[in-house]
Design goal:
It is a single chain. The protein is α/β, with parallel strands linked by helices and about 400 residues long. The chain contains 14 helices and 15 strands. The strands form two sheets. An eight-stranded parallel sheet has the order 10-11-9-12-13-8-14-15, sandwiched between helices. Helix 13 links the parallel strand 12 and strand 13. Helix 2 runs parallel beside helix 3. The longest helix is centred in the N-terminal third of the chain and has 14 residues. The radius of gyration is 22 Å and the shape is globular. The relative contact order is 0.12.
């Protein structure tokens, strides 16, 4: 099946082929025809499976009729600055001449964003906070809006963003197309989503909360005081080519990044306290291969689209199980395989069990005797769909014994 077979105009299908997109992914095959028809959609699919193109291509296809006409017709909301700029880049890649788009994000200067709004942008990609700023200044006119997209909808609808989302939804036309796309969708978030959409088509490519099948997952039980030595041991391995290290706190990310720098390991960090220019420079350097290791909080779990991330290391287990799915989804993208390693203390075992219940998948515990790890009794109880985590004993470079 080609993109043209999905109902896209020849110009869009040809552009996809020129950019190297020949065979639509499963989410694209199911979502594109429905979006073209104008219906509301709630779609869940694994990270790295082409969700952005699944809504952008049909939206741009429908907007062709308005070429060279002013007026804001499409609003795309995303939870992070990185994801917002990523969507903007994809939009510019696919959109035809005569259609304009712009991104407005916090942490960046107002001048260019104000200029884009005054020029009459057609497609606006925004983080909720900065959008609310411009709405309060009376700089956003929603009268022509016909499409609302919430990307990473689960995070957009959690309690942190929900008040802003409700105000935005109240300000836009009631007659519109609403599209929700995410890799995870908790039950309470689903109820909120249903209050915003109208008679939606549900598209589920994989089990909600499922981790990408292209990612090999392991958990290394470790004593808390041995976490850092184990991390350094892992990063010293030759096949750890381009690594994302996730921490729970901004302070933790800073601490680890400073230690890596002192050991002459090419690294950088990204979190909410860093300026937008610092975040962009960190991502650019990581993507270009100038830095091998990027230390990040969950601000990056939904905003990094780099095909060649070899490893994701969870230095801290995330408290929110859905965040684990998004973290490890930064590797094993675009058909590549990847590895995800979690450094697991006894105190974090309950959080790991919650992750296994969400994904329905047991994560193998690999015991490394040199690092003081211990596998708790909980690791032997059935997880999610009844699977039992495997137990392995190995040393680096040695043979494994089950």
């Amino acid at each position: 099946m080609s993109f043209k077979d999905l109902g896209l105009l020849s110009a869009f299908a040809d552009r996809c082929e020129r950019l190297g997109y020949v065979e639509p992914t499963p989410i694209q095959k199911q979502a594109i025809p429905v979006v073209l028809e104008g219906g509301d959609v709630i779609a869940c699919a694994e990270t790295g499976t082409g969700k952005t193109a699944a809504f952008l291509l049909p939206i741009l296809n429908r907007q062709v009729q308005f070429i060279n006409k002013k007026g804001l017709r499409v609003l795309i909301l995303s939870p992070t600055r990185e994801l917002t700029t990523q969507i903007e880049a994809a939009c510019r890649q696919f959109m035809p001449k005569g259609i304009t788009c712009a991104a407005i994000i916090g942490g960046a200067g107002y001048a260019k964003q104000i200029q884009a709004l005054k020029q009459g942008v057609n497609i606006l990609i925004a983080t909720p906070g900065r959008l609310m700023d411009f709405m309060e200044q009376g700089m956003i006119n929603f009268k022509d809006l016909d499409t609302l997209v919430l990307d990473e909808a689960d995070r957009m609808l959690d309690m942190g963003f929900l008040p802003a989302i409700r105000r935005i939804v109240k300000a836009i036309p009631e007659k519109r197309q609403t599209l929700f796309f995410s890799a995870t969708m908790a039950g309470e978030i689903e109820q909120i989503a249903m209050s915003i959409v109208k008679d939606p088509t549900w598209i589920e490519i994989s089990k909600r909360g499922a981790a990408a099948v292209t990612v090999d997952q392991k958990a290394y039980p470790v004593a808390h005081e041995h976490k850092l030595p184990l991390l350094l041991e892992l990063l010293g391995k030759e096949d750890f080519d381009r690594v994302l290290v996730f921490t729970r706190t901004k302070r933790g990310a800073d601490r680890i990044a400073h230690i890596l720098e002192k050991r002459d390991l090419k690294s950088n960090r990204i979190h909410g306290d860093r300026s937008q220019s610092q975040r962009e420079a960190a991502l650019k350097g990581f993507k270009a291969g100038k830095t091998r290791i990027l230390v990040a909080t969950d601000v990056a779990a939904r905003g990094i689209d780099i095909d060649s991330v070899s490893h994701v290391i969870n230095y801290d287990v995330p408290v929110v199980p859905e965040d684990y799915v998004h973290r490890i989804g930064r590797t094993g993208r675009a058909g590549n395989t990847g590895r995800a390693i979690t450094l697991l203390t006894t105190a974090e075992e309950h959080s790991m069990r919650a992750i296994e219940r969400l994904t329905g998948q047991a994560v193998e515990r690999v015991l490394l005797p040199d690092f003081g790890g211990a596998i708790s009794a909980a690791a032997f109880k059935p997880a999610g769909n009844g699977g039992k985590p495997a137990r392995s004993f190995r040393s680096f470079g040695g043979r494994r014994r089950r």
